[in-house]
Structures are given as C-alpha cells and as structure tokens.
Amino acid sequence: MTILLYLIPAALGLGLLGMVGFLWALRSGQFDDLEGEGQRVLFDDADAQQRLRRPKQ
Amino acid sequence: MNAALLQLTRGDVAGPAASAATACVHCGGEIGAAPIDGRFCCRGCSGAYAIIKGLGLEQYYTLRGNAALGERPETATDGIDWNDFVVPLADDKAAGYRIELLVEGLHCAACLWLIEQALHAQPDVTVARVSATTRRLHLEWKGKPERVNALGAIVQSLGYRCLPYTAEGLERAGQAEEKALLRAMAVAGFAAANIMLLSVSVWSGHLGSMGPATRDLFHLLSGLIAIPTILYAGQPFFRSAYAALRQGRSNMDVPISIGVTLAAAVSVAELVRSGPHAYFDAAVTLLFFLLVGRYLDRRARGVARRGAERLIAFTARPVTVLTAEGPRQRPAARVQLGDRVLAASGERIAVDGVVREGVSALDASLIDGETMPRPIAPGGKVFAGMINLDAPLQLDVTAVGRDTLLGEIARLMEAAEQGKGRFVQLADKVARYYAPVVHLTALLSFLGWVFIGDADIRSAILIAAAVLIITCPCALALAVPVVQVVASSRLMAAGILLKSASALERSAGIDTIVFDKTGTLTMGEPRLLVDPALRPEDLRAAAELAARSRHPLCRALLAACPDAWPAEGVEEVSGGGLRRATPDGEMRLGNARFCGLPPSDDAMPGSEICFTRPGAAPLRFRFQDALRSDAAETIATLRGRGYRMLLLSGDRMPVVREIAGQLGIAEWRAETDPLGKAACIADLQRQGHRVLMVGDGLNDAVALAAADASLSPTSALDVAQNAADAVFRGGRLMAVADFLKLANASRRLTVENLGLALVYNLFAVPLAIAGFVTPLVAAVAMSSSSLVVVLNALRLPRGQETRKQESQA
Asked: ipTM value of the model?
C-alpha cells in the first residue's frame, strides 16, 4: 500500500494544477469575452503581439 | 451567441443575393440609384472604404465574407466631444488615458478586427480592444486627453456609431460577483472530484480489503480538502440563508446550508474518533452542483441589465447648441432646458424638445416602433433617440438625460425587471414548507432514539444527521433546473433562445397574449400594395425616379420593379420628394402636397407616394407592411387553444383596424405609446390575467419587461431582445405557439419531478430514521433519485415535433 504515498499526492497535485490553471485564466480575463476570443483565432496577421496586450482589470 | 444568430439571419437574407454588381463593396447593401465610383451606395461607404484601404486593411472584406452590414455609416461624424468621459490611467498624466465606448453596428469578428487594427495604426494608441459580448471598445492612449475625439472619429468613419459608456461602476460590481461564483465553482469542482476518488476507495474498502488506518488516512485527507472548500465555496449559500433568516423567512439556501454544515460537522466528529463513516463527499458534491445552477442563473440576469444601460447611452450624445456666439458642441448633460439646439439631417437626436424651425421627417422607430418615417413641422414634439432624416431642425429643449422619454422608458424597464426578480419560483415555495418539516423530522428522530429507542446520544445524533443529509434537497434542487436545461435545449432546436431562468415557469399559466404589430405580426418593411389597374410601364417610370432615393417608400417601390434603371437628372427636394425635368415638363414623385394633389382621405400620411407626369393622369402608390407568412395560422392555432389575444400598436387607427380584421383579433388598440402599452398590461394583470407579450421595438421594451413573460424576434432591437425572456429566430411566428406549448409541458414535468423527489423522500426518510443509512446507501439513494429526475425531464417533447403535430392537426 506504500504506492498510495505517491499516487495520492500525484492525483491531488494534478487536480490542483487544473484548478490553479482555471483560476489563472479567469483572473487574466480570458472568460470576459467568450464570443470574441473564439473568432479572433481566425485572424492571421503579422502583428500578433499587439493583440496580446489586453486592458488591465 | 446573439452576434452569431444575428449574422446567421442577416446572412440568410442578404448573403448570396448581394452579388458583385448590385451590392455596395463596403456595406453589401443594394447600390440603388447613384453609385459612387460604380461600387458604393453612398458617400459614407466610399469614405469608409477609402480609410480601410488607406490603412492597408482590405483583408477586412475577406474576413467578413458575405455578410452584409445592413447599416450605412453615419456621415455626420464631426462635432464629437467625449472629453468628459476620458479617465486618466494613473495619477501621473504621462501614463495615458482611457475611455469605454459602446459600439453600435458590430456584426462579426471582422468588425472587431477592423476597429482594433485601425486604432492600432495610430502611433499613440496603446490598447484598443473590442468585446463581442458587451459590445464595448476599451481604448487607451498616451499624450493628450483631447485625442479621444480624433480616435473616436476614426471608428465612426469606419461606419460604426460610438456612444460613451458611463455605467462602468455598476457593471464592475456585477462582474465581480459573477467571477466570485465561477471561482467558488472551480474550487468546489476540484474538491468534489478528489474527495469522490478517495470515497470510492473507502466504500469498496468496506468489504474488508482496507484496514482502519488507511481508511482514517483517507478520511483525514478528505476532511483536509473539504473543510476549506466548504468555508470558501459555501459562502454564497451561507450568506443568502443568513439574510433570509434575519428577515424571519426561509429559502432554499437554509436547508442547504444546514445540511452541508451538519454533514461536515458530523464527519469531523467521526474523523476525530476514527469512525467508519464520513459524509465529506456528499457535502462537497452537493455544493458543486448547486454552484453550477447559481452561476447560470446569475449570468442570465446580467444580460437583462445591460439593455437599460444601452438605452441611456443614446441620450449621452453631443448636441449642437445655438448660442449668441454661434453654434457650440456640448455634451447632452450640459444642455440647459430651453436651449435652442440644432439637429442636423442624418443625426440621432439626444434630447426631448419642440420643433421651432424646419420641416423634416423623423425615423421614430426607436420610440413608436413604426418603420414609416413620421413628418414633423414647427410645434411638433421630438424625443431623444429619433433620427432626423431630411432637413435640419431647430429645437427648444424640454428634457435631457434621464428626464427624457427614453430615460423614463429605461427606468421603467429596470423597475419591471426588478419586479420579475421578486417572482418566487416553485422550488422556493416548496422549500418554504419543506425545510421546517425536514428539520422537525430530524429533531423527532433524535429525541425518539434517545427517549424511546434507548440509544446513546452519539448514535442518535448520527441518525438525525443521516435524516438531514438524505433529505438534503438534492433531487428537489435539481427538479426545476434540470427541466429548464432540457426545455431550453428543445427550444433552441425550434429556433427559440431562452434567456431568463424563470421564464418557463412564469409562462405556464398564461391566458392572454398581447402582440405588437410592426415587426412582430408584420415583417416591419413597407411593401407596394398590388393594384390591378396599375400598368407596368407606369410603375417602371416611377421606379426609375425612386431608384435615386434612399427613402424607405422609394426603396419599396424599387423592390416592386427591381430592373428599373435609375433616371438621370433627378433632384431630391428635402421634405417633399423627387423631381426630374424632362423636355415636356416636370415629373414629380413624392408626397401629395409636393405633387400638387389633394391629400387622399383614406390614406395615412407616410404610406403612400404620388407620381405626376406631364400628359398622364397622376398616380398614387399605396404601401402596406405585409403580414408574416404564418401570422394568420399562428393566431388561429392560439385561438383554438383558448388564449385571449390583444393587438397593441403605436401605429394609426385605420392600419391597426385593417390588420386586426385580417387576423381576426377582436381586441385592439391603436396609437398606444410605450407607457400606454405597459399600463394596458398592468390593467390585464390586475384583472387576474397572466400575460405573454410579443414585441420587437423599443416602444415594446417596457411592456416586454412588465408582462409575466415575453418573446421577441431576432430582428428586434437589442433593447427589446434584452427585455424579452426569449428570442425566436427567423420569420416564423409559430414559435410563439411552440414556446407556450413547451412551457406548459415543462410546468407539468416540474411538478412531476417535485412529486418524484417527494416519493423518494417518503422511502428514504424512514430508512434513515430507522438507522439503516450509511454514506454508501446515502450516495446511491441520492444519485439514483437525481437520475430519475433527470430522466423524467428528458421526456419533454422536442420543439420540432410540436411543430409537426401542429401542422398535422
């Protein structure tokens, strides 16, 4: 049963990673405009950096 | 979602038809008479095209594809003054400035791209970002605050109208709440998944493969995850329950809070004395499911509020005030009552006032919902939100900002929305009786075991806790939302987008339906009435003149004779019509006065145009707004089902009488203003009727918000769509019948579901009281009851099928 000592922290760690990732995405405003972001992917232009600048909340 | 729908419907109408030769390169609309450079329908479009090309952004047209814009750029772009709305980014002015602007006329991703690229081409702009959801432009720049006007003018010249956005603070608060719920949901979801992982191991370990030490470790880990989660993610429920209890009421959150807290407390006690059972999983999973429902509900409410804000923005436009020193631009808020202001032609008026000088026509569709232009002369009243079409007008200001009719409408809408927020949902009604019964049962079973069953206090508490947990309103809390979820997906398939969570429940007892006329029962565009006496060559001669004008009636005339070639030498006379000099004399197309004819008695102003030619009898063309193709069928179906129907219109009496007669609607009222419509609905409600409102204009917005439930077509104004509970797509009015049928079916299923939840409790509670319920039994019982409720909801008929049955019947 010592395997549990690895498996449980691993499981919790992965879950935590997902949650932290989601909270980060939420904080950085990625859920603010669900319609627009989906369509923005389709723009291919040279100045991609420009669009990464988003307003600070 | 809205944008996608909008694009879809627009595409259906104008997409393929707008082919190369006849379509304007910029807006995709019909070129009509006087093509500018052979490719554009108007100066605005050719200007916008030149700017886009100058910036090297022609890619916009490929990105946009076939979708036509439908709206032409406003040509009166000068005289913007938004300095009052500029906010510095930091105390240090060097950091730059920002402004939030509402952008009207966004259609698809290409619009976002175009605006952002055009602004980024300016060297001093640091951030330009348009949100498709909120339709707002966030703009930041370095340098002088006055630059805002130049930057705004760029966006305007591209063909979008901008309005400063002022309700930022309010919006932020709502957004923060939404985000907090989403965060709580994420935490609860993470915790629920991990605790369930541990719990399943413990349950299977009960068969003997797991020793007490491992089990206790698992319980400890579960507890370590669960306690902080409950403290954090349970807050929305605890707060609401506390608020309700303080007012001496009970709501659904009270049993939820008590159940979750108790489950956690008992589990901690079990953990401390290393008992075999812990309920951490039940507590956290319940929390997670409930948070999902709460979040969806909150989001639907946020959408409704935005409508009123957008209305107010219409009154925040700059106004040209005629002062002793000459014309001056001022923000509407700084205009004094009694000031003389100038409304240029093509401009949206931002104040209420009385006309002092000038004769023109107004597009009053925002106020009265009618598409026909309304003539205006000195002494006539104009209201904020109307567009001056023909000639400049001078007005004396009678109201500004929130005091305007538009402001009044917005305020009433907000009030009506709040009234709807007070609607007590069935689940809450049930909870009011349910909670005390459950708590009493738990208390009685505790006392019973102690005094009659001779149990020790500890096991008596455990049994009482089991009663509370198993009756925890899981199936009850699911019974209503799950029907709503299924119903909204069924409605979606039938082309109806459900926006408000409680709308279905509110629609169930409806017995009266109120219809708007223009744009709801009718298509909202004038069509030439077929006259057998009219010769095709006469029609063509008139259409050749009409092709030179953008007036709605001229376009309708042209639509009746699409291959007419625009005539040369046509002159448009403001407030009159078109004239063309020929060798024999003058041809005139316009209103009766302009053509020198007596006004006809039965025709309404604005629904006929006259045509005079040398050497021919004068002609009168009559126009009417055509009915939707299935309007008669829909009304007949609804009448067959026993609904009382009313027609409330802002249009003139003869037109409304005609339409009501055609459809066989006995009760109708003409020339009703927006507040009159709302008052009529309030009257009906006072008489004990439950009212469904179907409408599409701003003039319907208050009525839509005030009715028990409301529907809007997707062709409606944003404001009306936001005020309505559901939006239906396409030209099918039959959606109203579908919606009501589904609402009644889902009401029935909701009641059934609540019944099922009750039956489940009737079986589970005795088991719990008898002390047979372990966490495993609780988990199985709770999830199976939830499953039954979900499966029952899936029996809801499909929207498409309702329609089929309808057509067979």
From this structure: 0.77
